[in-house]
Amino acid sequence: MNQRIFAAALGVSIIVIAGYFLFKGAPAVTQTPELSAATPWKITGVPAETREDKTNEVVRDAQSPAANVTLYQNATYGFSFKHPNDTKITELEDDSGDVIIADGGPQKSFQIFIMPFDEPMTVMTPERIRRDLPNAVIKNPQEAILGDPSINSGQVAYALIFESASDGIGQTREVWIVHNGFLYQITAPIVFDGELTRIMGTWKFE
To answer: Where are the beta strands (DSSP E) in 46-192?
Structure first.
């Protein structure tokens, strides 16, 4: 059951992206490209006593949008993030989960696909993804902490961040979070990488 659900999640994700023109203006991709143009995510180390090995903390505050932003809050799943004022948020329901589209225009949008995920994992791994999706492109994976464990450990979430690509939609940045029985798949065009870094720096769970 987990395998079927996991595979379905990515399929829905790609369909929604295409339907809402998240990648409008991007050239169609007929072959998986070599991923090399992504903006490096700015991360900083967290003291070893507060993290797992090889886990980093996404830089907040200095990298977060400070003006002309709106706070999005999701009461159903208990999370929030800040986004530019001109970004339109659309919430959709799907048989496999829920979809949130943040539409800031061509190449300036991202989506969040949320599905139940009951496996006992703290952070998603490339090996777990490839177990269900053996052909998935996963390049430059890294782990990060969202939230400050020194303030409230219950608000902390662990993310797997990597570069990917798909025929027809091009290169993407992926942020996959496992938190409180749900899997969050955040997908954006690779050219939106810098802004997505700042947005994710404002992400908080209640």
So the answer is: 55-58, 69-74, 79-84, 88-94, 97-103, 110-116, 139-146, 157-166, 170-179, 182-189
Burial class (CB in 10 A: 0-12, 13-18, 19+), 4: exposed
**Residue 176 pairs with which residues in a beta bridge?**
160, 185
Whether residue 109 contacts residue 103, with contact meaning beta carbons closer than 8 Å, is answered with: yes
pTM for the full predicted model? 0.77
- Rounded to 5°, angle at Cα 119 from 200 and 75: 45
Longest dimension (CA), the chain: 46
Buried b (16+ CB within 10 A) or exposed e, 123-132: bbbeebbeeb
Strands 55-58 and 139-146: parallel
pLDDT of 1 higher than 50: no
Dist CA 63 CA 8 (whole Å): 34
